[in-house]
Every structure is written in structure tokens, then in C-alpha cells.
Amino acid sequence: MDLVVVLGLCLSCLLLLSLWKQSHGGGKLPPGPTPFPILGNVLQLDFKDLSKSLTNLSKVYGPVFTVYLGMKPTVVVHGYEAVKEALVDLGHELSGRSRFLVTAKLNKGFGVIFSNGKRWTETRRFSLMTLRNFGMGKRSIEERVQEEAHCLVEELRKTNASPCDPTFILGCAPCNVICSIIFHNRFDYKDEHFLKLMEKFNENVRILSSPWLQICNNFPVLTDYLPGIHNTLVKNIEYTKNFIMEKVKEHQKSLDVNNPRDFIDSFLIKMDQENHLEFTLESLVTTVSDLFGAGTETTSTTLRYSLLLLLKHPEVAARVQEEIERVIGRHRSPCMQDRSRMPYTDAVIHEIQRFIDLLPTNLPHAVTRDVKFRNYFIPKGTDIITSLTSVLHDEKAFPNPKVFDPGHFLDESGNFKKSDYFMPFSAGKRMCVGEGLARMELFLFLTSILQNFKLQSLVEPKDLDITAVVNGFVSVPPSYQLCFIPI
């Protein structure tokens, strides 16, 4: 019996290896580490810091290589030249989105982040147009952000200079800006439903960045049969979508097709038009959910990391406050016109985004048709990982990339210096829909905070740990407390 079992196992392994060679595309994919059957290269990767693992592999296999995340080959693109070529030069061919991510599975191909083909094209085009119509990049949205910045400052005053964890407050501000665009109203920071919504968002970011979710993304069948935190993610997404659906129902009852108030109204009007089969209630709820998640957590996490870095580098915070005092003063709110006259502050915000490397491996793309890339053949449907870390931490563009230095974005005369390597929002056709809004929020929220408060750490700056606690989907800063001392 033992011999039969051994022979059976050997035959099974040979069969799996045969299938493996077939799926490898006859050696036409880029080179990479030898995969194990079924598991692929999973055991050779550190899912607590996948970006670092991929960087190490690039030193062996070059800027374009293949790893097997489970049974599926994934092409990794590393370094500025290769990433630019993939995202910009081959933007159309590589504009697909992987269908194997847990979040993509939950969204069922709807929304603006995980959709593909015609549905993605139409949903993205509509979202960009509607956000512009409701003020993205115009003064009206700037006024909304300024109003929310004022509310944020008042909320921080209520801390009475006592130690506090800024996570929740810094999440409320960008979330309320999104609410004003989508729902036509903002929430009080003490609103029970708002509190619960923010709690779900914060929890989802931690779950999505956990090693277990990285494994589930590569073996999605696990989510169907095993317990784990992925079930909490599912419940949180369902809660958010139910919350949105209630708002949609309210909008349906009071809709005036001649006077759309917000994003939901505009979507409902689009749904009633003929020949727009991509616009359904499910698509609306998922798209709003995408805008909520992307527009809240990325900005709030960046703000939270920003204050931590300014605590770590009080000399930088002091210099920003000096520039605020000189350009803006104390008696008016910051506005976007100020940014061009504040090169140091602009450089600091860019350096924060570069340094924290918020989305280290970007969101995975997928090949929409068979394509030749750097003499390699990549078949349709292949997942593509573009390393944003390799661009944002490139030593040629940013000397000492592991060091926080606003000088990376300043020339010898102290003027702001742009860099083609600055890609925190990705690049090409799949770059962040809300980039303009995020840039505005970061500038107006940070300058408003520093205009009104001195940041005081509870420990010596040299003892502050600024290392991300998880570095999976998102780089999450460690928890910390500080005091907001009124100026």
C-alpha cells in the first residue's frame, strides 16, 4: 500500500509539473525564480513586505521578471524606465484589472477600481466628468475643502492640547469632502453612523494590508471555505454598501432631473437614459463605495503619516510654519493660490508622499490582449505588478531615498523642482481618479493645521518610530499620540 501511495504521489507531481510548463507559456514569459507546484513562489516571498521581496528578486532577474503567486504567473515590472513603459507607453494594453483579488471578487466587476472593458471605460469617464462638474479642480470644491479644514481645526481645538491619537479625526475630514460631493452633505464628527463608517474604513485598510489577505488574493478559494479576517472585510463592505443604498433610496424619492445635487443624482439620471446598460443600481453603489474608500483612506493615512514625520523632524515643521506665517499669515484661510508661493511646503508634501510610499506595489494591472513587452511575450489575462517603490525610492532621482529630505524637490535656489519619478498616484490610464482632489486636500488640511497648532510629541523625536507597521497593500504608519498646542 505504501508503494502505491508513493507512486500515486509521484504521478500527481509529474502531472502538475506538466500542467505547470503548459501554463508557463513555453518559456516566452520573462525569467523568474523556479516555482513550486500549486504554491508557486509564495514561500519565497515575504507578504509582510512584498515590495522588498520583489526588489531583491529584481537584483537577480532584472527589471522585468515573472513570479508565480499560486498557480497564476504574474509579471513584475521594476524601475522607472520599465514602469513608465508599462503604465504609459503600453497604457491601453496593460489597462486591465486583475479579477482574482478578493476585493475584485466582492465587487463583481462593478465600480471604477476593479471593473474592466467597456464597463470600466464608461464608469471612469462618467466619474471624472461628474466630479469635475461638481467642482473637482474648481473653486467650488476648494471652498468645500476649506470649510472642512475649518471644521477639522475646530475639532482639534477641542482636544485642549491633551494627548490624542489623530487617526479618527484625520479620517473624518477627507471623508466629509467625499460626502459633500456624493451625498450633498457632510456629517458631524460625533454622528453615530459616521463614526461607525469611519471605523469600518480604518479596519478595512488594516485587513487589506495584512499578510493573510495577500495570501487570499493568490488563493481566492480560501475565502470560500476558511474562517479568517477576510470575513470581517466582507461584512464591512456589505455594511458600507447598505449605508450607500439607503442614501440612494433617499435620493430617488427627491430626485429633480433638471437640478442634480450631487454624484448620486447624476448617476440616477444617467441610469434613466437609454442605451446605458452599464449604469445600474449595483454599479452605482459599488462606484460610490470605491470613491468613498479611495477618497478617504489614502488621504487620511497620508495625513496621519505626515504629522508623524513632522513630529520626527521638528525643524521641517518649524520651517513650514515660518513659510505659512510669511505667505498666508494668521487671519485668513490657506488657498490653492498660496501653493505656488510656498515652494518649501510644496516640497515637504511631495517628499512625504514619496517617502511613505503609500501603495508600494500599486494595484495589480492585467493584460487586455497578447502583447510583446521588452522582447517577452505576455498573454492576455496575465497579471502585472508595477513597483511604485522602485520609482519613488530610485537612488538616481532621489539621493539617499530612505532618508526624509524635502531637498529632493528643491533646486539650488530653493524653488520647487518637479520630478518625473513622482508617481504616488500611479500613471497612465489607470492612475487615481481623485488625484487632483487628494493634492488639494493634503495642502489645505496640512497648512490649516500648522497655521493653528504647534505639534508636540510625547517622546523625544529621535525615539519616534516612523517604520510602517504593515507594508502590504498600503503602508500603514504605527500608532502614536501627540498634542495640538494652539498658536
Automatic annotation (TrEMBL):
PROSITE patterns in UniProt: CYTOCHROME_P450
Region forming the signal peptide: 1-25
Principal EC category: oxidoreductase
Species assigned in the record: Oryctolagus cuniculus (Rabbit)
Protein name: unspecific monooxygenase
GO biological process: organic acid metabolic process; xenobiotic metabolic process
Predominant localisation class: endoplasmic reticulum
Essential cofactor(s): heme
Organism ancestry: Eukaryota, Metazoa, Chordata, Craniata, Vertebrata
Binding-site list for heme: 432
Cellular compartments per GO CC: endoplasmic reticulum membrane
Family of this protein: Belongs to the cytochrome P450 family.
Enzyme Commission number(s) from the entry: 1.14.14.1
A GO MF term: heme binding
SUPFAM superfamilies: Cytochrome P450
CDD domains: CYP2C-like (cd20665)
InterPro entries found in the cross-reference section: Cyt_P450, Cyt_P450_CS, Cyt_P450_E_grp-I, Cyt_P450_sf, Cytochrome_P450_fam2
Any single Pfam family the record assigns to this protein: p450
Subcellular location: Endoplasmic reticulum membrane; Microsome membrane
Superkingdom of the organism of origin: Eukaryota
Keywords, sorted A to Z: Endoplasmic reticulum, Heme, Iron, Membrane, Metal-binding, Microsome, Monooxygenase, Oxidoreductase, Signal
Annotated catalysed reactions: an organic molecule + reduced [NADPH--hemoprotein reductase] + O2 = an alcohol + oxidized [NADPH--hemoprotein reductase] + H2O + H(+)
